[in-house]
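@channel sequence for tomorrow's demo:
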Amino acid sequence: MAVYFDHRVETPENSAEPSQLMWHSALSILAVASRNSTTGGNVNIYLQQGEHVESCHVERPHRPAMLCWHPIKPVLALGWENGEVLLLSHPSGDQNVLPSTHAARITLLEWSSSGSRLVTGDQSGDLAVWKVDARGRLQGNHQVKHAYNSLLTCCIFKPSSPGDDVKMLARASVSGDENALDMFSWKGAPLKMGPQEGLAFYVSTADGKVHSVDEHGKTSLLLSMNGAIKKMFYLETRESLTVITDTMMLSQYTLGPEGDAQEFQKVKLSSKSGQSVDIVWAQNGLVITATGEQLIRLWDLERNENYALSLDETLGFERGEMINCVSYCAGKEILAAGTSHGRIAMWKMAVHLDRSRGDTKAQWKLQTPTEIEGNVTQLQWGSSLNLLAANNSNTVVILHEHVMSAHCSQQVAAVQLTPTQLSITQFHTGLHLALQSEMHIKGVCVTKDSATVWSGKQVTVFEMSGAALHNKGSFPCDSHVVAVHGENLYTVEPNRVQIRTPQGTVKQLLTFSKAEGNPVLLSVCQSYLVVGTDTSHIRVFDLTRRDAKAHCNAKNLADLIPNLGALRSVKCNANGSQVSILITQVNGRPDQKVYFYDIEMDTVTHFDFFTGRPSSGISQPEDSERQQFQESELSGRCPVSHFWDESEPRLFVSETVPVSSETSSSGYWDTVDVSVVTLFCTQEHGLLLQDCYPKPAGLQALLALDVPYYYFSCKLLFRRGGLFQSEEVSATSAPANQSQPSRGSVALFPQMVSRRALRDFEGLETCDKSTRDAMLNFSFYLTVGHMDEAFKSIKLIKSKAVWENMARMCVKTRRLDVARVCLGNMGDARAAKALKEAEAEPEPEAHIAALAIQLGMLEDAEKLYKSCQRYDLLNNLYQAAGQCEKALEIAENHDRIHLRTTYYNYARYLESMGDKSLALANYEKSDTHRVDVPRMLQDDPLSLEIYVNRMKDKNLYKWWAQYLESQSEMDSALEFYESAQDYLSLVRVHCYMGNVEKACEIAIDTGDRAASYHLARHYEGHDDIKQAVHFYTRAQAYNNAIRLCKENGLDDQLMNLALLSNPEDMMEAACYYEEKGVHMDRAVSLYHKAGYVSKALEVAFATEQFAALQMVAEDLNESSDPALLARCSEFFIQHSQYKRAVELLIAAKKYPQALELCVNENLTITEELAEKMTATDSKDLSEEAHKELLEKIAECCVRQGNYHLASKKFTQAGNKLKAMRALLKSGDTERIVLFANVCRQKELFIMAANYLQSVDWKNPEILKTIIAFYTKGRAPHLLAGFYETRAQVEIDDYQSYAKALDALSEAVKCHSKVKNSDGQQEAKGAELQRKITLIKRFIHARRLKAEDGEEALNICEGLLQEPELDAAVRVGDVFGFLIDHHCQHGNFKAAYSKLEELQNVVPSQNIRYYVKPASLDAMHKHMGLTMHSGDHKNNEKEEDEVEEDLNVP
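structure tokens (generated this afternoon):
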């Protein structure tokens, strides 16, 4: 908790009323302007504690008008009412008067961002720009001067544009960008490495105009408004200008690159007329205004929202107290406001402004006020975040923030209330004292009998004697830290610690070497003093003797702790064996670890609160669940304070906060979760977590640990009339023998310390020392995991309270095994039973929660249920505890399966409490209102009727109608029955009242079965059988209708009703017909419909009901009786219904008979029928019989032309050869190829290849397949034959001797692969070779035709002499070649001679097959011959053959 020390400035004697004040932006120096109505005014400069700098005093016969500090240098610009402007340097006091430029009151002073330019302006509208060097000295006359002819009000410099990004330029240069390379080269302009100083600015006037002045001093009008401009702000994120006029009209303008301004928002700010307005511009576009009201208004330009913050009387503010001025500190995120009653209100932003926020107003938290005298008219935060200057019209007060001092030792605690007052509490005597000091207290240290305070310049020792405080001694001392042990005081100075008496006499010096550094930290525990130095050394001294003796050598912690920047705090335990250390890292941030230096072992260990684990190598209990719980509870935190128990050397406690808030001030910790962590620290077992719990509400900070208590400082509430303690801690903070002040009364001496028992000592605060030691040992061994030692330490304890406390401890430590022992010693059978029943739950946390509930630890049970996400059990807990609102919240968010049940239980609870209206609403939410609300309101019929009519619910209408019926109000009951659409009740009431026709009408119109049934019963009772049967039928009560038909002989209706009813009724009706001996076809049909097929067939055969028999047989299947199936099949055979007979034979599994019938009667065997005959189990037929059946079916399919099915069945029978033959008959080329590839048998490959030769094997795919199949079938002789056939086709059909030659060559190759070669094969090979030779000669002759015709003729003549030439080369082709050759060379006689030879050789063939028509025409033309009659005949024969071919279908 922080307080503000107020320092009044040391004003000179001739200073008058302060009018202005201004802090330097970088230095802790304050400028104050004062004015006097008679003598003029002066300006003075003060230091941070109000010390006046005498050399910096400026006085003039005129009043000071403006103040403005240089942004960097300690140079102050002063403007006076006569137009004079001077520069005052600190601390020399040098004054530099600017050349006379202004003749009117200075209204404008503004420095540029780096201080190289100063803008001055006066009341008449004259503006000047001055240049200042780096030392803050004026450079000649003004550079620019403009006259605007109106009072100048505001000036702001436009922020400079950022410099070029060097990284981006470097990347561009590497990628080859020439422009970027030029910017890096010496030829180009100098590279801008960062933002340059902006010299352009905007200036506003009282006539509502804003002018823009560029870097060269040229001015232009930017915008105009109505009214004088009061404030201007520049929002960099939007590059926009915000302008506020004296009428509180706020306008925002976007600034274009061409120097134009476009308005995009205009709003009217709220204000109080006739009051001065203070306007402050905060970061991120937040405008804050104080208009002399009890509130301040904030407008967030970024989020476009506004809200107000008001004063709170409960914190000490008074009714009618007005806010005059405001000031915002961006570094601390604190908004300060000065009031008319001399108070300074402060609001702190709970989250940083740059984080996402929901309700922004809710983030501002009002702090306790600071009071000064008078009417605060001006506030300003200093460059140091801890300084705030306030002007109360009489003087200037500098407020310096100081964290409240507090100390607790030996059951005596002291806490600072004000800068000069302490609250002291003696818990061992119950006394409460208030100490008033004459100096500002910066530190306090208490012992059992004394209280020592110091200010950094003075030390005073007070002795506590009873209820009085006596000044025991006071002496000057510059030590900033003091420690006390007995009658000795320990103070520090460079390189030594002084041991003094209470009067200041130095008794002993503890010197430190230069390497060890200067002592800066002192701490005493029992009889040991630990000293920390600014070089990170520590030394421990033993104080048990008259003189302090070194307990260990100086230790340089920098050698043991990495990344150590400085020591924050050092503490020693009770026996001097361990020293705990908090440090600051090299980067200035607090370390998240607590370090422990073992003096005897000379080692350093640590506990890391960021990970929630101690340093490696330290032993831990072998309980992974506890370790995970510890890490989850402690991770992500940072220690802020630490203490050792004053008597138990093993017990250590630390106060921790989340890592994100460790650098914040202590006041900020009010808004974060502060945890108090207790550890056991020993050499043998290392660091062990003993407890971790959140700091209770209403408590400020941890002060000490002294078993069985923690000691905390308390928060205070400031109200009118005094200070009040928080009600959350008032019941536990006072000593036992001190009475509590009544609620609402003023506490003249508020007690500032509260004691809270340790977890293990709750309920045992007053136990004796032996019990306390036993409990400590039990807790320690329980934490270690040594259960035997733990029980030994408490075996002599008989107190039930102690065992109950240990059971509570087991909830914290999650030790159910120990808890069972504790419950046994407590004799709490109910708790033991509840714990055993809870073990049925799968989550261990649920078991512990059940134990916590039995011990009354409901908060712990709540946390445990939440941690294991057993929201159903948590819901039950809340309901049992009467916390119905929480139960509903849990049910709505996490346990929706029990939401209605929760609403119902809550409604029952409210009903028991008499709150029927709220109970009614919850009954509705639980959807039980249709029953429970009438029950609840049955004693109030009027309210119930109103509720029923309002809800318009059918169930409620029905309930109310029944109620009215019970009251004999039949007409009203009928109305509500009709509204409820309860047709049964309508029919019932109408029948009761004798309105049978109306009841009949309702039953018919609505079709309601229940109403029809009731009406049928009514008719049956009145012997109207026909109507009864009719309405029984409408009600679908067919059994009753059938009963009446049988009893009354209504046989015709009986059949229809039986068919509509269930099988039992059908059976009864069939039996009725059979017994009666009439309508036997109906009996058969009913037996069949009822599922009694055998009975139906029996009756059908017995009574020869063949039509009915055929209908029944349609439902027979393989599950029917085989004998019955056979009998039916014979019946169908006799009546020539062979297809149906076959189906029945198959169902009877008589497959051979079925097949025989198909063959004999020529029934087509479909695939479905074939599958039925062959899809049998091995039990029905043997494997051989099954194969035989398949082959017979396949043969039958072949005879019927169903080759595909035949192939399938042959394949299933394993006879693939017959399957292929069937496929070959089908002519399905695709399936033939597929089947051959699947079966992969040589015979099948050959058969498929043979088949493929019969199709169009000119297709390349088929040709490849033929070759592949012959190859896979290992039949080279057949492949050779195929090639030979192919060659002959090429010759006969296409005269392609080249392709024929290729085919014959392949045939020769294949023929050579034949293994068993005999004489016939050799002859065949020779024949192929001869054919190849002849074809080659003919091909050669053709090629020589153009080159050497004579040689070609000789070759052809030679070929004609070869015997059996036509087997290789057609004779006609040779003659045709000779005739064509002779015709081309004009030798027509020779050509004609060859033509006659050709006709003699092939007299039966058409010569045009061999001779080109052109050659024939040329020959006839040149020789003058007519076509030979033989040719004509041949032509006619050819035409006849063509016609014959064309006529072939």
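heads up for whoever presents: The mean pLDDT is 81.
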